[in-house]
Amino acid sequence: MPVQLNTEYLNSFISYEDYEKIKPSVSLAHDFLHKKTGLGSEFTGWVTLPTDCDREEFFRIQETASKISPKTDLFIVIGIGGSYLGARAVIELIKSRNYNDLPKATPNIYFAGNSISATDLNDLLKICEGKDISINVVSKSGTTLEPALAFRVFKRFLEEKYGQEEARKRIFCTTDRQNGKLKQLADEEGYETFVIPEDIGGRYSVLTAVGLLPIAVAGINVDELLLGAKLAQEDLACADLNQNDCYRYAAIRNILYGSKAKSIEILASYEPNFAMMSEWLKQLFGESEGKDNKGIFPASAIFSTDLHSMGQYIQSGTRNIFETIVYFEKPRNDILIEATDGDADGLDFLSGKTIAFVNKSAFLGTLKAHADGGVPNMVLKMPEITPFEVGYLIYFFEKACAISSYILGVNPFDQPGVEAYKKNMVTLLRQ
Ligand code: PA5
Description:
It contains 16 helices and ten strands. It is α/β, with parallel strands linked by helices. The protein has a five-stranded mixed β-sheet, sandwiched between helices. It has a five-stranded parallel β-sheet with strand order 3-2-4-5-6, sandwiched between helices. Helix 1 crosses helix 11, helix 3 packs parallel to helix 9 and helix 12 (275-289) packs parallel to helix 15 (387-408). The mean pLDDT is 97. The site of 5-phosphoarabinonic acid has 14 residues, from loops.
C-alpha cells in the first residue's frame, strides 16, 4: 500500500482497551459514509469519484490543458478555499514550491482571488505585463466575493490586452453545472466551462476539474493521480479497523482528542514542498471537524526548518499536542556528501552519506525525542512523491477526515461557521 501508518511511537499513549472502546463508533462511521446515512450524505460523491468520474469531462480537461500550454506564459487560477488549495498543494508537492522559477515546458502558474489584498493583486498584474495569459476561475457557488472580485479585474485585463473575442478563448470557468452567477456569466460570454459535481463540496473537490485542470496545465500526469486515488478507494473500503490504516488514523485522532486531552494536531513533513499540502489538510480537517464547540485544531510544521523555531514548544510546551508526520522514503534526487580537504567544518564523518540519509536521521531522532517529551506521534510512510502516490494520499486523508468527523459526531461536509464573517462584511459594504 502506498501509505502505511506506523504507530511505534504511540504505544505508550494508547492502550488496547482504547482501541476496543472506539471500534463501534468506527463501524458506525463506516456505515454512515458507505450507506449514505450520515449527516451531509448528499456531499459524498467524492467517495466513488475515482471509479465513477465523468470520463468525457476528464479527457476534455487533458485536451484543454494541452491547448492552453503552448499559448500561455502565465496561467492564473482564481479561487479560494477548496477551489484553490488542492491544486496548489498538488502542483507544489509533485513539481516544486519553486515551480515557477524552474526551467520547464509548461506555463508558470499563479493563484489569485484567495485574499482581498489590493497589494497582492497589483503585484500579480505587474507580473502579467508583457506575458501571454490564460485564466481559470473556479467557484462552486459562483458567488464568492474574493474570486469574483479578482475575476472582474483579470477579465478586464484580458479584454484590454486581447480584445473580447480572444479574451473569451483564454478564460476557463470551473463551476456548478447550472447554478450561480459564474455559470450564468460563462454561458453569456461563451467561456469553456468545467463542472464541479453537485455532490462534492469544495474541500473534497481536488480530484474534480477544480484541481485537475491546473494540475494538468502544470504537466502532471492526472491519469496516474486518479489511478492512485482509485487504488485507495479499493484498499480503504474495508470496515475492519485493524485492516484499514485510514480508519486507524481517524480512530487514533479521536482517542487522543477524546480521552487524552490532545486537542492540537501538528501535520509535519520533512519536505518543504509539502507546505501547501499541509494548508490543504488544515482546511480539510479544520472546516470539517471544527463545529458544535468541538474539533482538533490542525496546525502544521516543516521539519527540520521548524525544529529551530516551534521545536522548543513541541518538545516542552503545553502537553496538548500530537503529531502526524507524512514521511517520504525516497527524495526525487539525492545529493552525495563529499569529503573536503582539511575537514574545516568538521562534517567529514558524513562523507559518503547522502543528504536524504541525514534528513532521515533527523526524522528518526525527532520522533523519539518528541515521544519521550510526551507528544504522541503517528507516521504515514510513503515510498516517494509521484502522482500515483499523491492521488492515494489525497483519498486517504479525505476518507480519514470524513470518518474522523463522524466519530466525533459532526457533519463533515458543511461549514455554517464561515457565514458569520461574510454577513458582517456585506452589512458593512452596503452601508
Ligand atoms: O470547502 C469549502 O466548501 C469552501 O472552502 C469553499 O471551497 C470556498 O469557500 C470557496 O467556495 P466557492 O467554490 O463556492 O467559491
